[in-house]
Amino acid sequence: MTASRTFASDNNAGVHPEVMAALAAANEGHVHAYGDDPYTQEAIGHFRRHFGEEVAVHFVFNGTGANVSALGALMRSYEACICPETAHINVDECGAFEHLVGGKLLTVPTSDGKLTAELVEASIHGVGVEHHIQPRVVSITQATEYGTVYTPHEIRAIAEAAHAHGLWLHMDGARIANATVSLGCSLREASLDAGVDVLSFGGTKNGILMGEAVVFADPTMAPGFKYVRKQSMQLASKMRFMAAQFTALLQDDLWWRNASHANAMAELLAQKMASVPGVEIFQKVQANEVFARMPAESIVPLQGVADFYLWDEPHSEVRWVTSWDTTESDVERFAAAALQLAHGV
Amino acid sequence: MTASRTFASDNNAGVHPEVMAALAAANEGHVHAYGDDPYTQEAIGHFRRHFGEEVAVHFVFNGTGANVSALGALMRSYEACICPETAHINVDECGAFEHLVGGKLLTVPTSDGKLTAELVEASIHGVGVEHHIQPRVVSITQATEYGTVYTPHEIRAIAEAAHAHGLWLHMDGARIANATVSLGCSLREASLDAGVDVLSFGGTKNGILMGEAVVFADPTMAPGFKYVRKQSMQLASKMRFMAAQFTALLQDDLWWRNASHANAMAELLAQKMASVPGVEIFQKVQANEVFARMPAESIVPLQGVADFYLWDEPHSEVRWVTSWDTTESDVERFAAAALQLAHGV
Amino acid sequence: MTASRTFASDNNAGVHPEVMAALAAANEGHVHAYGDDPYTQEAIGHFRRHFGEEVAVHFVFNGTGANVSALGALMRSYEACICPETAHINVDECGAFEHLVGGKLLTVPTSDGKLTAELVEASIHGVGVEHHIQPRVVSITQATEYGTVYTPHEIRAIAEAAHAHGLWLHMDGARIANATVSLGCSLREASLDAGVDVLSFGGTKNGILMGEAVVFADPTMAPGFKYVRKQSMQLASKMRFMAAQFTALLQDDLWWRNASHANAMAELLAQKMASVPGVEIFQKVQANEVFARMPAESIVPLQGVADFYLWDEPHSEVRWVTSWDTTESDVERFAAAALQLAHGV
Amino acid sequence: MTASRTFASDNNAGVHPEVMAALAAANEGHVHAYGDDPYTQEAIGHFRRHFGEEVAVHFVFNGTGANVSALGALMRSYEACICPETAHINVDECGAFEHLVGGKLLTVPTSDGKLTAELVEASIHGVGVEHHIQPRVVSITQATEYGTVYTPHEIRAIAEAAHAHGLWLHMDGARIANATVSLGCSLREASLDAGVDVLSFGGTKNGILMGEAVVFADPTMAPGFKYVRKQSMQLASKMRFMAAQFTALLQDDLWWRNASHANAMAELLAQKMASVPGVEIFQKVQANEVFARMPAESIVPLQGVADFYLWDEPHSEVRWVTSWDTTESDVERFAAAALQLAHGV
Hints:
By secondary structure, chain A is an alpha/beta fold.
């Protein structure tokens, strides 16, 4: 099997050695299943150190599970969640939100994947009128599906708009580490401190094997979450192995090292590709993703060098994602090949 | 953290070293996410070797996920699944079936956790009448929640009853390995060959870290399964690590060694506990679980020796589960303590 | 088309002339749709006169709609409703509860269709444990599906058991009028005053054209009900015509006259049939239904005289239902035919 | 109570006398409940005369019930329905589609409420990819929520696009009669003959008391519909009274007379209002609805003359709806008042 690295997805990367070591270390004797074990308590402790002692933390299997169980605990079936049209919950989760929650996504077109307070305000209609589904949550993604990052100030404005209307603010933080590194702040400043009520904290894309966490700013906001998680089939039996991975990420700075490296590689890639004739980078590169337009005829040949996704075929838009394990030479080899293709060599 | 082993659950055990080694070996470079990778293909190959070249195999996160996504792909919301009252899908999955599938479980009281063809027949009512939910699937558990095992002959009779009425037969095989070892047959003889249409193949309770598989006898029976899995939030991104564990289990005989050992330990435990005054083992011990009645006042002290569950408090019934890593001395220490408690020492 | 009257169902009867007159009287000009009209206000006023000024009243299309929207407003998908095995929500609503609410019915076998406080207590398990669905509501039917009636004292005991565990008490009152007449009390004494929190108030079986009401003892218990009703597709646009029927029922004593007559006819029928050789009435006749065992070979011939349902074929049990329009001669003709069949004439 | 007529909604109108007479005529003796009665058979016969002998016809309570049960019978939870952003199923049904079907609406912005074949094509993405919900149905409204009407030619183009991708075409025909009259064709030409697979046939807005019908072009396309209807709580017990209303509508030309009158009144209203200074009619008036922009300060005073809805407050857009019972003098009085307001009298 191949050891080559692609730019297709940070899900294509493997697991950081420190995380593998943590799994091995947790594999000792018997502990209670389903989270009633010291590994889980330890991991929750690390989350509390980062996010505040009062937060409630629950581990789930994957990002869809985190998003939908978090929203399911906060919403009734007659309620709606406002999100950008590009949101993962809208386009990449095969309708899990609608099926599990029963409610509706009120989607908002954006150019860069980012909501604003004004867009939130404009999406609130029909409150109190039974014919219309009732807005209840706003969901934003940090970093966005376009690799852009919300500043704490921008989040605060959205949170204030949401809260003024009695709505919760959810953050899909599948790449919260990348966004935090990009902002140069703490995990908490990039999310809860800016007014986020519940965070889907991503682990899988940042070097762990499998697992995400749902972090509620206030444990009283979703008293039924544990039932929602179980009913949503997101409760792991051998929870210690999920928890141990998060301890590995959070106990020192592995979360930061992994994300920081991936972001640096994205920046390097963007810089090198920007000078390739015919390539236009059309979104700000603020995390570990680069979105570009490039000549249609070069796409397949370049995918042969290192795989990536054709994001929007009609517009010849592509996405390149870097990972904790992307190397400078991966970037250089790819950029050199692009340059050769551009010059018709 | 403690290294002691309990009799509470096979979910309390850790991961077999061969499985840990397989995870490490799979951690090499980039592969496509979501199952489009060689590790997944390899694991599917091992399933096909065991169950037949024609089967469709899909990996999911946990047992509830396997059961409910399998049933969800086969049923409409106005259809019902006939199962024993004791079925895991009925009592231990927090209503995941009802919420995800939208249908109803028609539950049948049994003394030993086992359905029969006659019980299935007697549960079929109101076919074709729109006021009544329509039976569509029969679900049995192998080994059952009472640690008993269906013979291939018994399964065949149920399958024939189900199929005669146009119903599918689902098997919750969370402990299919233990049942198979107990029967001394092949995995396939203990399930699909006896008429089972779809099998939830358990891995977690048999020494892996996390993961179950859904095995369809005929790939055409549930063409929408892949969408159901994704929508049910059971699609792992770094699928290779789930697949690699199944390869470890199935490529040689690790599945058999683990289950065989656990079964032997249950037999030893049953044998030793049967001679403890006041202890009555009230279910056949055919897999890795022992169900017993014992004096109420001895339960808490004995849990102090090694933890286990009080299964039915009013009847003073307890459950002891053995695992791939249970040792003879674990059993002896436990039985000796029980004997001491019985003698009031 | 035929004008004959059957004993098959009170749903087979037509509409009382006073109700038809009320429909005609409401057919005047324009009023706001969806309940914002004086007819609806008037009908609510009549409910408040009967049930108390503080109740919240909402009209829906049918009994299933009343039951399921009431329960849906009170429950989350991870919660369960305890009910008799014979409950209409369990056997006659094609899984609407499971599909709409997402939760589970915890069904209790009974001999007469009636729960007791003890049966409720015995059904409450696993509270606080995330693997188990959480009991949230108890549902009883007044009069029951076996034509038996709960006394206020019996209801009070169930309500106390339910409330002691933080559960709501729902009453399916598809035949609340028949039960109330039978008890010789007020509608309120037969339901809310005895501790019922929410009542499905039946109209259709008691002489109206179409419609049921959901009556909440306390308007604050289900603040989202109006959205649940709309989302459950139970909000009538020309609401005035639903409301006008309830005004006809409740403004004077039409509800009482209709139910009283139907009950009297059931009593007469039971009395006459009890003397037919081979006929055994096996449930108390307390409302407008008679349940009997009778010789299998007489059933089809007797259905030819006036239709009725074979309730339980293996046990040769039948159900006879009387209506507001059943006449004494209907009863006498039927009983005479039964007697002739019994004598082999 | 008032006999004044508004322009708020055709749901505010009462019931045509011929429909009331049909209800009275059906109120004779006992018939089987739930549709197994001669009235229902007769009504189905009338539908078959209009739509073809092969169609399957089912009655439901309301428009939301018709739309959602039709779609629910055709779709799985992982499938999507493409519709205009303005569709009733999207904005006016409180999420009933999402809750009952579990799937997603893929909404398309339009200027006039009408889809086109091109818009349908552009909405089909991610087919066969499990991350994305799978398009399964296209839904159009005839007449649209903007009072515009699809020609059979336009419908045919949409049907061809849908069918080419294996999608069904659903028509929300809440105002199918108004559209048909406007087109000057038959009901069938305005719907099924143009390629519609399933039609929600509206009755309530066209002069009946309560009821809609679901008409499947081919009875084999949704074999489970009867269960979906029951589970969706849309099965009326005293079905004869629903059926009798449709017989009244369809047996001669009442459906045409009512719709024709309403359309004529809308045309008259549009003509008169077009000459009021400051009023701009911004949608084609093709059925019984008029959409206009008018000076914000005149809206409330004009609502005092006859009520209507402010459709889009920021743009000062209003909706006027005419009904089977709107009179010329209603229109003249309203237009005269508008003129007076415009002249500041």
